[in-house]
Amino acid sequence: MPISPAVRPTILVVDDSPENLNLMVELLKDDYNVRVAPNGEKGLALAQSDHPPDLILLDIMMPGIDGYEVCRRLKAHAVSKKIPVIFLTALNEVQDEAKGFEVGGVDYVTKPVSVPIVQARVRTHLNLYDQTRHLESLVRQKTLELENTQDVTIAGLATLAEYRDNETGGHILRTKSYVRLLAQNLKGLSRFRGELDDEVIDLLYKSAPLHDIGKVGVQDRILCKPGKLTHEEIVEMDRHVVFGRDAILEAEKLLGRSGDQYSFLRFAREIAYSHHERWDGCGYPEKMKGDAIPLSARLMALADVYDALISKRVYKPPYSHKQAVDLIVKGKGTQFDPDIVDTFVQLQQEFFNIAMKLVDHEEERVTLPKEAVRLL
């Protein structure tokens, strides 16, 4: 019983002989939707259209573009590269067959064709292609599930920080935007090319909200103190980086990825623990220096300081944008990575725009533009 045309696979036959095209249509039309092309150029156009075939039967000896070149171009194109290609040809030397496999063919049938063999080969390779697509679909589904799990894990941890400190909500939104902006503009520099790509930048953006998660372990009397902290209170406040690292390590442990450099929480762990390190080695907790500080933490260090400067806190009023920029430039090569500072200066208008869009307090919206309004 013929298969319904609505669900039948589509076979594309590419051959310069009308007789061969007619023959293949007659052989396959009861079970498949059959499309034909009289030359390589037309075959490529049909294979790379919005409705590509499920399998291609391809002649080799054709005028213009021969079958080998057609197959090479099929395999080099995103739309057609995975479509199985069966060569149909009068060439029957071993080297001809080897060349067909070399350019990407999956099978090789010599003319004059045997009807049962052609039908069996078509069936076999369509089944294999269906299985491949099914497996790819499962991989995509599992990848999406994994990404969703990662996002939910990070978001859940970040929520802890938001509940702990009512100043954190806008700060989280702004700093992760600053980090992404810096990373996107640094990835083209040779120095950072091996560390930054789109996947890493996306993880940095998602991980940045966890930079102060360790503050959940700091006492309220210290975290919310409106005045200057004592030495003992500063020491306690500084421990938030250890609390943050340990919290993320515990999450990784529960996920079976404790301390794994390939863990999706790796950047969150680096940021939480090292974003108070300084380029000159005078930061904390490890007094790391220069490139020994993870890039993720170096990016977060600048983003965090800029936002802290321009934001209202219980212990200080907001600084102007210009004051914040001047202070960060002053810290180039001492507190901050020089290249990151240079990129920040180039992007200062965009930093300012993010700050204004995600402002926490209305008085900050009024205060900031006094010296920065000319930037708009």
From TrEMBL:
CDD domains associated with the record: HDc (cd00077), REC_PA4781-like (cd19920)
Alphabetized PROSITE patterns for the sequence: HD_GYP, RESPONSE_REGULATORY
SMART domains on file: HDc, REC
Top-level lineage group: Bacteria
Domain HD-GYP per the UniProt entry, residue ranges: 146-360
Cross-referenced PANTHER family: CYCLIC DI-GMP PHOSPHODIESTERASE TM_0186-RELATED (PTHR45228), CYCLIC DI-GMP PHOSPHODIESTERASE VC_1348-RELATED (PTHR45228:SF5)
Protein name: Response regulator receiver modulated metal dependent phosphohydrolase
Taxonomic source organism: Nitrospina gracilis (strain 3/211)
